[in-house]
Amino acid sequence: MFRQVAAYMDNKIERRLDRRGFSLEAVLVFVCGLLGSIGFAYIWMTAADEMGDVGDSLTYEFLASAMAPVLLLFGLWIWYTVGAHLLASHYRGRGPIIRLLRTTAWALIPIGIWYLIRSAVIIALFYTVEIPENPSQEAPGIGASATHDYILGLGLEDPIYVGTLLLGVLFTAWSGYLLSTAVQRSKNIEQDDARKVAGILSGVFALYLVWSALGYAGIA
Which intervals hold domain Yip1 (predicted)? Predict the structure, then answer.
């Protein structure tokens, strides 16, 4: 099954190499990002239902957390593209950066799948969470940001969510595999060199996930 999916993605990357524009890839990244927004949007709706009047400041905080997965994925797309372009030049890679922009987007599909899993876990965790009517009184800090973080912590500090973040490392490894294919085809470098480039770029994101997991676990 994995080989069939990997072969399909390799063929997709190959077909998109010399196409014009990258609107399809932009839509792909946006949709994958929205899969990560579902869970945080559910927290927002749950909080609004439990609290009644959320207030403008807290609404902004929830909106920001709901849009964060989309912005993060677009940032990762740029990181993959620019980073691969610069690192591949060290191995005498050739080819315009626009080719990388098209192909690296397809390497983000595994992250989109993990986003969907994470959203499902968030919904399951917050389905049983009781949010106080006035959580600002329970929050350790003052202001909408502290209240927002307190509400998120009611569910996201669960070991299941921490484990889901660590699961993301495996999907990042899959993303790195696809990224190596994208770099190899786009920059015409050796497979081993492309794997080194992809390992560095995807490894940084994997470290970010581990750091986030440690933070929710109360270790970092």
Answer: 24-213
Q: Which two tokens stand for residue 204?
A: 């940084």
What distance, in Å, lies between the first and last C-alpha atoms of the chain? 37
Distance of alpha carbon 5 from alpha carbon 20, whole angstroms: 25
Q: Are 41 and 68 in contact (CB under 8 A)?
A: no
| CB atoms inside a 10 Å sphere around CB 188 | 15
Matching residue, tokens 């307190």: 150
Q: Are 167 and 50 in contact (CB under 8 A)?
A: no
Would you place residue 52 in the very low, low, confident or very high pLDDT band (cuts 50, 70, 90)?
confident
Are 171 and 179 in contact, with CB atoms under 8 Å apart? Answer: no
